[in-house]
Design a protein that fits this description.
Cyclophilin; 2 domains; 26% helix
Length: 346
Amino acid sequence: MKKLLLISLLLLTALSMAACGGSDHEPFSPEQPETSEQPEGNESTPNTPISGGNGHYLVLYASRTNNTERVARRIQTTLDCDILAVEPQVPYEDDYNAMLERSQEELAAIRQGNYPAIKTMLENFDNYDIIFIGYPIWYGSMATPMQTFLHEHAAKLAGKRIALFATSGSSGISTSVSEARSLCPDATIIDRTLLLTSSTLSQMENRITEWLNGIGAEREEPETPDTSSLNVNITAGNRTITATMEDNAAARDFLSRLPLEITLNDYNNTTEKIFYPDPALTTEGVTWGCTPAPGDITIYAPWGNVAIFCKSWSHSRDLIKIGRIDGNGIEVLSVAGDISVKIERR
């Protein structure tokens, strides 16, 4: 009877231990560093951001795994801006428990004023309107590599606007916001932050777009000339004059080739300034015949050259008018000899 009672107690103890054991390797476990899903890839050299087309923003991120990195790269793609990973001097261990122990030790050391070494440094942030700072939440705090980065760059970040984003299991972002304000007291920490947890990471795209719109961060589209405009600038030396082109096929062909940097050759004692487009401009469907006045831009069809008249000339059925210099601008071109010009849309 005693043996049966002992066996029953042993079985009950074993079942209780199994039920309470749990797993420390669950992704996004609250109050713990995010767990590794796949190795993090570094495409940039420390201290050298990967450049985007929009130089007004910089995304800085620390990510032991790919969770925070995914968010950072999505922000970078959305804004087409610069991006750089903040890396520890000594990579974190692959062993999860060892990584947990090290992160706890580093957080404790920071509370004593000792920051773990990193290998990422930047000379200045002068060209950036907003610096995006991203990190995982470790035990409720900002990941230690990013704390070190902000501590070491606090003076350079003075006066800059900083936008914070983070990933976590379920922990909030408020403690890390306070840490950022303490680390960079002379920077402006934007009140609106972005936190993605295990339950919201699948909404990453929409959440990022909404957040960026909320803080006024926009993708910078390159300026392109109005292709429907018939207006052009003609620059000779330090002077720029304007012209208006005709709305015909030959003028449209001319406009499609801009900008052009060419030499206008003097012809017939400064009566005309001419050059030869290559290939010749189309003349299909246009009206032939013109009595040129000073400032008229024409094509002399038999030769295929463009002729800008500086003086009046007699009517020619072989001339095709494609534009005219505005106002008295022709005076800039009415000089003896050849002249180099740049013609572009405006």
